[in-house]
Amino acid sequence: MPTAIDVFEKVRGHERAEQLRMAREADLLPYFRVLESAAGPVVEMEGAERVMLGSNNYLGLTADPRVMQGARDALERYGTGLTGSRFLNGTIDLHLQLEAELADWMGTEEAIVFTTGHQANVGSLGTILGPGDTVIADSGDHASILDGCLLSRAKLRPFRHGRLDKLEKMLERAGEDGGGVLVVVDGVFSMEGDVADLPRIVELCKAHGARLMVDEAHGAGVLGARGAGASELLGVERDVDLRMGTFSKSLASCGGFIAGTHEVVDYLRVSSRAFMFTAAAVPAAVGAALAALRIIRSEEGPQLFGRVLENAAYLSAGLADRGFHVIEDEHTTTIVPVVVGDDWKAVLLWRALYDAGVYVNVALHPAVPPAGALLRTSVMATHDRETLDRALGAFAEVKRRFEAEHGPLPA
Ligand SMILES: Cc1ncc(COP(=O)(O)O)c(C=O)c1O
Q1: Cα 304 vs. chain centroid, distance in angstroms?
Q2: Using alpha carbons only, what angle is made at residue 23 by residues 18 and 24, rounded to the nearest 5 degrees?
Q3: How many whole angstroms from 123 Cα to the centroid of ligand 1?
Q4: Which of 116, 121, 138, 223 lies at a 20 to 30 A Cα distance from 146?
Q5: Ligand 1 atom 8: the closest Cα is on which residue?
Q6: Across 19-82, where does the E strand assignment appear?
Q7: pLDDT of 160 over the 80 cut
Q8: Strands (DSSP E) along 282-344, which ranges?
């Protein structure tokens, strides 16, 4: 008998469909906007110039001539693609050099390069963890961490974002689960921009015999004297068992890595399906990441980290002075989140800023807790003060008009 249920039914009646339709009709959709230039401090987007406060190009290296040359050289030498996985026919010497230099940078025995950061998380968590294990994750962790945990079929014990008392409870419970235990946290949380309390997390993991993995996507290339991330900033590098990073932010490219001991990394090389059964990162992406890493590790690196963090502090203070509710953390990061709360208000505010020549990201549930809509702004080392002032002026003017029409925004 043919089945009565169309498997595509869910694409018609899903919970976001009506919201999406209304947003599209009113041209209010803050996603899939089309860039017509490089992702610099100021971009061409849909026919107009806009200050870019919604990019992860933290050090501004995507347009650096040395990074572009790195991509060009790799392209010239190896062609456009590798048409196979690292495992079979997709490993080139640039992958190996990049892995060696990443491991040296992270201070670990080895590193393994994946085609994307998402795959690095899925391909490591989905391989290291098994059905008998327990994984404990912060509820603010990136979606790719959750995907890796789910894929592994380990017992998932999430805890409320930043609540280390809850983490401790989960560690106590995990002790009874009967398998190995891994704690996974973002070093810098991607939406709120706050830094995990890694020293306390390390202490708790040690007390309970758990392993610790830190996702350094937003900390690598920004935090710590070497720019090695939140683990370096907080002095716990030796206590973190696995560190994940991506090339899609400070490293100005596309790809990801896991850094750790020889035995773990070697196991991933021959067991991680997201590594073995997908095409290797294209040569240009690897060449660009390698060139960016070399800049980060040169004398210029700390100047870039300093500049981007100064810009973040400037933007954060400027927005707070203009009456916005900015989430502040003890540690400055590249991410400056502005709390709006209501989804529609966030979208309307986004559109008003867009029309005023400023592009920001909108974070709605499930990227943030329900009724916790944010404008996620972020800066680059290459933003100058004049450009940031231009954006702040637009924020102030938009706020005045917005509140007159829609009522007060969170202060
Ligand atoms: C914290 C975090 N981890 C992992 C990823 C995935 O990295 P990629 O975009 O390189 O796949 C991201 C990127 O959005 C991220 O923000």
Answers
A1: 19
A2: 100
A3: 13
A4: 223
A5: 117
A6: 42-45, 48-53
A7: yes
A8: 335-341
Check if 117 has its Cβ closer than 6 Å to any atom of ligand 1: yes
- For residues 380 and 248, give the distance between their C-alpha atoms in angstroms, rounded to a whole number: 14
Spatial contact of 346 and 375, defined as CB atoms under 8 Å apart: yes
CA distance 174 to 151: 19
Is 386 buried (19+), middle (13-18) or exposed (0-12) by CB count in 10 A? exposed
Would you say the CB of residue 361 lies under 6 angstroms from ligand 1? no
Question: Chain-centre distance of CA 97, in angstroms?
Answer: 24
Model confidence pLDDT, tens digit, residues 316-336 = 999 999 999 999 999 999 999
Q: How many CB atoms lie within 10 A of CB 299?
A: 7
Three-state SS sequence of 134-195: EEEEECCCCHHHHHHHHHHCCEEEEECCCCHHHHHHHHHHHCCCCCCEEEEEECECCCCCCE
Q: How far apart are CA 362 and CA 381, in angstroms?
A: 22
Nearest to 380 by CA among 43, 65, 55: 55
Tell me, in angstroms, the distance from the centre of ligand 1 to residue 144's CA. 7
- In 3D space, the residue among 371, 351, 302 whose CA is nearest the CA of residue 27 turns out to be 351
Ligand 1 site-directed mutation target among 57, 118, 214, most atoms within 8 Å of CB? 118
Mean pLDDT of 100-124: 98
pLDDT at 17 over 90: no
Question: Which of 257, 114, 134 minimizes the C-alpha distance to 205?
Answer: 134
pLDDT for 13 beyond 90: no
Cα 300 from Cα 292, distance rounded (Å)? 11
Going from the C-alpha of 171 to that of each of 236, 262, 291, the distances in angstroms are 19, 27, 41
324 — alpha (psi -120 to 50), left (phi > 0) or beta?
Answer: beta
The CB of 376 under 6 Å from ligand 1? The reply is no
% the chain with pLDDT above 70: 100
Give the residue, by CA position, lying nearest to ligand 1 atom 7.
Answer: 117
Return d(Cα 17, Cα 32) in angstroms, integer.
16
Q: What distance lies between CA 317 and its chain's CA centroid?
A: 23
55 lines ligand 1 (CB under 6 A): no
Please tell me the distance from the alpha carbon of residue 87 to that of residue 345, in angstroms, as a whole number.
Answer: 48
| Predicted TM-score (pTM) of this structure | 0.96
Contact predicate 148/158, CB 8 Å:
no
